[in-house]
Amino acid sequence: MNERLYKGEDLRLDRTGRVATLTLDRPPVNAFRTATWRELDAAVTAAAGDGAVSVLVLRSALDGMFSAGADIKEPAPSPDGAERRTTLTRGVLDAVHRAPFPVVAAVDGPALGGACALVAAADIRIAGPRATFGLPEINVGRCGGARYLMRHLGQATVRWLYFTGDTIDAERAERLGLVAWVAEDLDGDVERLAGRIAAKSPTALRVAKQSLNLVEWTDVAAGYETEQQFDLRLATHPDAAEAAAAFREKRLPHWLESPIP
After folding, report:
1. For the segment 93-140, what is each residue's pLDDT rounded down to a tens digit?
2. End-to-end CA gap in the chain
3. Into how many domains does the chain fold?
4. Does any domain span residue 89?
5. Residue 143 is part of which domain span?
6. How far out from the chain centre does Cα 65 lie?
7. Same domain as 156, residue 56
8. Distance between CA 205 and CA 199 in Å, rounded?
């Protein structure tokens, strides 16, 4: 059953089972205005606050267009307004990165500028054949968004995109590791992936996401030790015993919504 969790002018958030879907819908190109970032903030907050969500999908309602990035037709804000907008944007990207569940970005067509940073903040990116990625801010005398791309792409590639405003296509993004794979059936692949994730223990997913975020920038030994500590906590949770029992009995597991000890 589909449940509407949030509705704005530029996007909406729905949940079906344990899968939440945030859909950008601002024709013709999903240009991000300040109001869009406010709605993104509200939608991601709503998803994070819903204990029934196990995975969040970011997608576009527009065929062949994820987002062209910033709405350059929006009047320039005052210096104070510009500072508030940068704080808002930074907060949204951080909220996606730190969401208590995996975030999957389904990219059909261009994902440029702030939209490119948004999908780079997600955990998994699946691209359609028409997807392109880039940071064109330099073309209008601006800059930004590179730090999130640096989580997935090397310095040489990021600096090339940053200083030229060039884009990379879906196949190159896959070769470079920005996207997990290129899907001919993007909606179908993402639906199946989200369903597979949502079938896992909700508690284990949330702990695993927290663990990955903590160890991302640590050295190997310290990071693995941290990961082991999270695993030891999960080992004492009822879902661990239930997963083993379900495997032995060849049945679907019944997860418990109980806190981590």
Report:
1. 999 999 999 999 999 999 999 999 999 999 999 999 999 999 999 998
2. 32
3. 2
4. yes
5. 2-198
6. 17
7. yes
8. 10
